[in-house]
Amino acid sequence: MFGFFKKKHSSAITVSGKTALVVSITRNGEVLYTDDAVKKYPRDHLEGKVFEVSFPTQSGNPYFAYYLCDEYYVEVTNPNIQGTMQMAMGTSAFRSEVSQKMGLFVAQYLKSALGIDASKEIVNFSHNRAHTNVLAYIESLDDWYPIQHCDAEGDDASELKASKVNRGVLTASEVIAVTDLSPTG
């Protein structure tokens, strides 16, 4: 009734005192969800601190969800923080818990916003490492896409890929994860 009682699912997930924000959901090369926080970025902004999680399904290509978490990003990318067994176990536990909660968000969002019941479709998850994607605005598609970008590529690789999609040289499916996690090297 007028949307007053429609529950909006929060894209903010708290795990181990850290807040992760689900910023994008994709499947089959299409963006299904872009968080309002991302829509406020200047269109020339390139966000390289996103983490990728794959949610394989029983009936086709996986869903991919992307999140930002500054505290976790600093922990796993700062060379000044010594890697200990305790830290490795902590980051592994964080990745698992945030992925599980993201899977719940993905299923709830898809059901409420798009009428897709993925709750029985999603069979597990895989969490990628840092520096595999850059969130970039694709003007020709009028949305933000998680462009694949690994450490082995130059700093301007995401910008060049986005430009090629804008010019029609590449499709979005050629520069984002569709069947597997983004390459790491």
Describe this structure in words.
29% of the residues lie in helices and 25% in strands. By secondary structure, it is of the alpha+beta class. Strands 1, 2, 3, 5, 6 and 7 form a 6-stranded antiparallel sheet that branches. Strands 4-8-9 form a 3-stranded antiparallel sheet, with helices on one face. The longest helix is centred in the middle third of the chain and has 30 residues. The radius of gyration is 16 Å and the shape is globular. The termini are far apart.
How would you sum up this structure in a few lines?
This protein is 29% helix and 25% strand. The chain has helices at residues 36-39, 70-77, 85-114, 157-167, and strands spanning 12-15, 18-27, 30-34, 46-47, 50-55, 63-68, 126-127, 133-138, 143-148.
